[in-house]
Amino acid sequence: MATIENGSRELAGKRALVTGGSRGIGAAIVRQLLDEGAKVLTTARSGTSTVPEGASFVPADVRTRAGARALAEAAREALGGVDVLVHNAGGARPYEGSSAIPDEAWQDALDLNFLASVRLDSLLAAGMRERRSGAIVHVSSAAVPAPVAPFLHYTAAKAALENYSRGLALELAPFGIRVNTVTPGRTATPGGQETRQRWASLAGASEQSTATTPLGRDGRPDDIAHAVLFLVSEKASWLTGSNLVVDGGEFPRG
Ligand SMILES: NC(=O)c1ccc[n+]([C@@H]2O[C@H](COP(=O)([O-])OP(=O)(O)OC[C@H]3O[C@@H](n4cnc5c(N)ncnc54)[C@H](OP(=O)(O)O)[C@@H]3O)[C@@H](O)[C@H]2O)c1
Predict the structure, then answer these.
(1) Which fold has domain 15-246?
(2) Is 187 in the pocket of ligand 1 (CB under 6 A)?
């Protein structure tokens, strides 16, 4: 990938932790951070072989407090500290309707899509505060402003994430730490495709592969990663508390 400015690597010397970097959007984020010179540690529950070359990998389940603690510790050991923190791991399977979503699925969706970020931020922001610099990105979903019954556990958790991200940005701004959200629309990833197939089969239809966005195609993982890369770079040094929607113009927003 071409570097952003005149051959200099935008993130040289930066230490980055990306959750869910073994495939899809997370793997694209890892690749772009590496291309810009960052040292990158990523995590997933499995899938070491699919992690982009050049990144370090530690297996962890970010849904649990213990997983978050182990990951923060691994990041301190492997990187010596974290300057760039990207919360990408997320998702949820659909159900027939809100009352079919079991209690454990609500908890699971909250743990993965919301509380994982809260816990890791709190463990890793301390070092950023000491250094008086850092960039955090939370990955939300363009489904938040258009919630549908099969995914209410997921969209409610992502809505909480967006609200929390904005508040955290204001809290950490005096310490030179920027916190932003990237909101992807329908993006072609293994997880996205599997989820849409499940949703279609619940509705008795087959997955539609035709592009539905005003820009005429689904998103690519790199489309989302470009937005993340921008937000963690110096080019975004006056952006905090923002929500960058990358969705081909698809979803309505309030
Ligand atoms: N694709 C879309 O259309 C779309 C649209 C809107 C928003 N998003 C958001 O974008 C982000 C990435 O989505 P994606 O489509 O790229 O997902 P994906 O293809 O399912 O990849 C998810 C990544 O997260 C990891 N992961 C999942 N659960 C984890 C856990 N408990 N602990 C640690 N790692 C975990 C996965 O590895 P393991 O399974 O091995 O753990 C994998 O590396 C998510 O937050 C998603 O909600 C995606």
Answers:
(1) Rossmann fold (3.40.50)
(2) yes
Pocket test for ligand 1, best of 18, 23, 153 (most atoms within 8 A of CB): 23
pTM above 0.85, yes or no: yes
Domain ranges for the chain = 15-246
Per-residue pLDDT of 134-158, as tens digits, reads 999 999 999 999 999 999 999 999 9
Query: Does 209 score more than 70 pLDDT?
Result: no
- One-letter amino acid identity for 243? N
User: Could you read off the pLDDT of 63-104 as tens digits, one per residue?
Assistant: 999 999 999 999 999 999 999 999 999 999 999 999 999 999
How far, in Å, from the CA of 20 to the mean position of ligand 1?
A: 6
Q: Is 184 left (phi over 0), alpha (psi -120 to 50) or beta?
A: beta
Residue 22 Cβ < 6 Å to ligand 1:
yes
Q: How far is the CA of 237 from the centre of ligand 1 (A)?
A: 27
User: Quick check: is 164 catalytic?
Assistant: no
Ligand 1 probe mutation, 50, 88, 245, most atoms within 8 A of CB: 88
52 lines ligand 1 (CB under 6 A): no
Long-range (24+ apart) CB contacts under 8 A made by 67-74 are 67/116, 68/116, 68/119, 68/120, 68/123, 69/119, 69/123, 71/17, 71/19, 71/43, 71/120, 72/120, 72/123, 72/124, 74/41, 74/43
Joined together, the tokens standing for residue 69 give 């603690």
